[in-house]
Amino acid sequence: MLVGITGGTGYVGAHSAAAVLRAGHRVRLLVRDESAVERALAPLGVDAGNVDVVTGNVLDRFSVDRLVRGTDAVLHAASVYSFDSRTRHELARTNVAGTEQVLETARRAGIGRIVYVSSFGALLPSPGKVLDADSPVGRPRERYLAAKAAAESVARAHQKAGVPLTITYPPALLGPHDPKLGDQVTRLRNTLRHLMPIWPTGGLPMGDVRDTAALHATLITGTGPAGGRHFGPGRYVSTREFMATLREVTGRALPAIHLPARAMLPLGVLVDWAQRAWPWHIPAEYGAIYTCACAAQVPGQPGRPLGETLVDTIRWLHGEGLLPVRAAGAAAAEGLRAA
Fold first, then answer.
1. Dist CA 117 CA 99 (whole Å)
2. pLDDT score of 44
3. DSSP 56
4. Quick check: is 188 in a domain?
5. Which residues on adjacent β-strands are paired with residue 235?
6. Are residues 123 and 245 located together in one domain of the fold?
7. Are 178 and 185 in contact (CB under 8 A)?
8. Average pLDDT of the residues in 282-299
9. Do residues 56 and 64 touch, judged by C-beta distance below 8 A?
10. Torsion region of 125: left, alpha or beta (phi above 0 gives left; psi -120 to 50 gives alpha)
11. Distance in angstroms (rounded) separating the CA atoms of residues 232 and 102
């Protein structure tokens, strides 16, 4: 089977591509920068020479046509995932218009199995306390989540029209080998560097990128009927539990103040406005606070324990020189002894 993948040099896309290859299938990637393929896949044990590459982007119909032509399945994982207010113009272009282009091209080409990578955030705020596959598309008051909700509406319209499209809802993801050091891994790094002493109450679903990649490989190469909606492996984790687990695996005190999430929303708004003029990232995004304030449970799916995921992520950050040994604490020390 030949699987076309968008976003293959990103966190979810790279891990998913590696999982599809390990399952014995071929992969073709649509990428903006061909040199990024080896950087993203080599740490996952993938020889970039074994991957077909189409250079282009999801907004270019010609590029998407070249990706889709001759494939048996398509995984659309390309997305701008960021709560940084400086990315606001990219969000609608890539997350919404790009999804429209990829899914419509795959539909016209008659691809028999299509998987779209959405987000649990596309269903926020939820009318109930638990999200499920029948939850309506949300109307979030935050730019990234709003863009994912709009893209979710596009995907559901294709499902309603009978397109063999499966939608996945990954939780907030951690794990090693993040090619572009995205928001979630950066947030963990900033916490260990004492840049996040204040946390909102509430929480969010969390999981391991490797478990979500395995789910994608199963869905995209499976023999069962295509379609449906699936939550990625993981579970709801409160911010207090997250910090407690982080203290446990690092052996560090990591003092933190927890304030009501909704009370912190005005601060997030001010930071978003300030971020547009300030050249360095401010680790207090409105989107992260808003997500915790919505605090929706998800169906629990088996996956790696949170502590294991945190240790593996911290060891990777330390090994890449992105986190000093003192900040990594016991997690890095155990990794060094194991080596």
1. 10
2. 96
3. S
4. no
5. 206
6. no
7. yes
8. 87
9. yes
10. beta
11. 22
Same structural domain, 265 and 310: yes
Using CA of residue 238, residue 145, residue 213, residue 162, what is the dihedral sign?
Answer: positive
Q: How many CB atoms lie within 10 A of CB 60?
A: 14
Cα→Cα distances 251→244, 246, 267, 268, 320, Å? 10, 8, 31, 30, 21
Nearest CA among 131, 261, 127 for reference residue 202: 261
Rounded to the nearest 10 degrees, what angle do helices 306-319 and 183-192 cross at?
A: 80
Average model confidence (pLDDT) across the chain: 92
Cα–Cα distance for residue pair 184/172, rounded to 1 Å:
7
DSSP β-bridge partners for residue 117: 168
**Structural domain tally of the chain?**
2
- CA atoms of 93 and 79, how far apart (whole Å): 10
Q: What are 154-185's pLDDT values in tens digits?
A: 999 999 999 999 999 999 999 999 999 999 99
CA angle (242 as vertex; 236, 246 as ends), nearest 5 = 145
Give the whole-angstrom CA distance, residue 282 versus residue 269: 12
User: Looking at the structure, do residues 282 and 216 belong to the same domain, yes or no?
Assistant: no
Same domain, 91 and 78: yes
Closest by Cα among 206, 191, 201 to 292? 201
* 27 and 105, same domain (yes or no): yes
Number of Cβ within 10 Å of residue 149's Cβ equals 23
Identify whether 197 is part of a domain: no
DSSP letter (8 states) at residue 49: G
Say if pTM beats, i.e. exceeds, 0.85.
yes
Strand partners, 199: 258
Structural domain range at position 273: 237-338
Rounded Cα gap, residues 310 and 246, in angstroms: 7
pLDDT exceeds cutoff 90 at 223: no
Out of 35-44, 78-87, 228-237, 300-309, least confident range: 78-87
Count the residues in the chain: 339
DSSP string, 152-194: HHHHHHHHHTT--EEEEE--EEE-S--TT--HHHHHHHHHHTT
